[in-house]
Amino acid sequence: MGYGLGALANVSDILLGFKPQKVDLVTEHSDATGHSAIVEENSMTAIERANGNPAKADPNGIISVGPNRYKDRNGSWHWMKGTNHWDTHSRQGEVLWRQTLNVNKGTIVKYGKWLNKMENAGKLVYSVELSSCVTHTSVALNLSGVFNIGIHPYLLNAQMYLWSNGLRPWTFSYLLNQ
User: Fold this and answer.
1) Residues 6 or more apart whose Cβ sits within 8 Å of residue 95
2) What is the pTM of this model?
3) Taking Cα atoms as reference points, which of 133, 39, 35 lies closest to residue 84?
4) CA 41, 155, 142 angle in degrees (round to 5)?
5) Which tens digits make up the pLDDT trace of 24-52?
């Protein structure tokens, strides 16, 4: 088990690359549902709810997936057209938690572009269960070397808080030898 955690640490280092850059994980927490988004570091450029309208989307938002209410106002939260132009909740005065993370930003930007491409092709599906804001935020962070489990925005926020303070799964692998 200790060797497995050591290998995980090595994979994380490889994915992070030689020059990790900073992005902000924004977690909106005004209700029990919450929302996760990844934005440029220290940006507070969101001005209003985009809900899928690219003209109102945060220009510094990288990943912010939600149901496309701009094109389908009456859809449910399950298996409807999705958008990567959802509200990032990163404007001044929003109820949010914000954390700056060192990541492989290039990988996250590429994933965000892929989400935009899927949306433009009409193939991005939103589902609370399997293709939500936290799912895509978690996948982007995992691909960039910051390993996590994306089940709920609050859980992802807690994991990234621990990660940014140096608490990682392999940090305590020496305890497995005792």
Assistant:
1) 28, 29, 30, 89
2) 0.85
3) 133
4) 60
5) 999 998 888 899 999 999 998 887 778 88
For 174, the 3-state DSSP assignment is helix
Q: Which amino acid is at 125?
A: V
- Give the tens place of pLDDT for each residue, 101-150: 988 899 999 999 999 999 999 999 999 889 999 999 999 999 898 888 88
Q: Could you give the number of structural domains in the chain?
A: 1
β-strands 35-40, 21-28: how paired? Answer: antiparallel
Report helix angle 153-164 to 133-143, nearest 10.
30
* Strand-by-strand arrangement of the 96-103 sheet: 61-63, 35-40, 21-28, 96-103
> What are the two backbone dihedrals, phi and then psi, of residue 160, each rounded to the nearest 5 degrees?
-70, -30
Q: Which residues contact 27 (CB under 8 A, 6 or more apart)?
A: 34, 35, 36, 96, 97, 98, 99, 153, 154, 156, 157
* Residue 106 CA: distances (Å) to CA of 24, 49, 50, 112, 113: 14, 27, 25, 10, 11
Give the Cβ contact number of residue 11 at 10 Å. 12
Task: Give residue-wise pLDDT tens across range 65-85.
Answer: 999 988 877 777 778 999 999
Structural domain for 48, as ranges: 2-177
